[in-house]
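Field log, afternoon session.

UNIT: design team B
ACTIVITY: writing a sequence onto a fixed backbone
BACKBONE:
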């Protein structure tokens, strides 16, 4: 007979240099051997709840509709509630109650039901104080994927008490946007908290090149759609596959290094200049 087990989508900041991902997979497989596990990412920057939350929310439209989402980024492991949350469309999100799930829940229309994971029938003893994903979150996600009702995970909690998350919004004015670096990748591409709507609000959506100014450096950046649009070392801006404005340089150069940026740094984006500019440091 075909399996009715639900797939599990797994996101964490565990990295790949230790046993944490493998042990988590082993726990999932022991409880829900019929469930397919999809590793969305385990390279979220350490303890970066915002980064993990945005990646999860941006990925929802590509995930199986019946998936159980297991998300683990826990700066305060052992202190935050461990929760399972059901949305109106029947999805279940499992993770720490620290805001990590908040943008995804908002994207899905909010929480229909939430429980704190406390059941002795679910939790694997002894519980590690520093690795509760193994003993609480993974077993809960696996049991739900295998067919367990949310009520059996623990006591129901008011969805309105779930922790929210402040997602930084850029400030827009005519011709200019004040934003910040929210992420960078190993290629040196720098993601800003700017969407197409922000460029429209600032009146610079049609600009073919933009000024990128930061405390540590500035440049003109030509608009493009993909990395191949730029000569080696040339600065450019594109919207990444998740819809975020990203400052890049033609391969193999790094915009991150060239502009001396770091996560959280302020950046100003503006429209056409009155004269040519080059990167400064």
């Amino acid at each position: 007979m075909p399996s009715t087990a639900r797939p599990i989508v797994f996101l964490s900041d565990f990295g790949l240099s230790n046993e944490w991902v493998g042990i988590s997979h082993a726990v999932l497989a022991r409880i829900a051997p019929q469930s397919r596990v999809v590793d969305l990412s385990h390279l979220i920057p350490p303890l970066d709840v915002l980064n993990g939350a945005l990646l999860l929310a941006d990925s929802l439209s590509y995930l199986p509709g019946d998936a159980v989402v297991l998300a683990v980024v826990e700066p305060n492991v052992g202190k935050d509630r461990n929760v399972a949350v059901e949305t109106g469309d029947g999805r279940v999100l499992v993770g720490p109650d620290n805001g990590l799930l908040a943008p995804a829940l908002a994207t899905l229309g909010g929480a229909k039901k939430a429980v704190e994971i406390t059941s002795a029938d679910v939790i694997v003893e002894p519980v590690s104080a520093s690795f509760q994903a193994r003993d609480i979150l993974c077993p809960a996600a696996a049991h739900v994927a295998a067919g367990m009702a949310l009520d059996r995970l623990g006591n129901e909690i008011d969805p309105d008490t779930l922790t929210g998350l402040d997602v930084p919004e850029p400030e827009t004015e005519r011709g200019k946007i004040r934003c910040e670096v929210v992420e960078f990748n190993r290629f040196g591409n720098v993601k800003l908290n700017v969407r197409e709507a922000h460029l429209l609000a600032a009146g610079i959506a049609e600009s073919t090149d933009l000024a990128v100014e930061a405390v540590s450096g500035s440049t003109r950046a030509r608009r493009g759609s993909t990395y191949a649009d730029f000569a080696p070392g040339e600065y450019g801006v594109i919207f990444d596959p998740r819809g975020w404005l990203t400052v890049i340089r033609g391969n193999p150069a790094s915009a991150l290094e060239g502009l001396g940026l770091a996560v959280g740094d302020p950046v100003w984006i503006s429209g056409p200049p009155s004269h040519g500019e080059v990167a400064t440091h």
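LOG NOTE: Confidence is low (pLDDT under 50) at residues 274-281.
NEXT ACTIVITY: expression trials, pending approval
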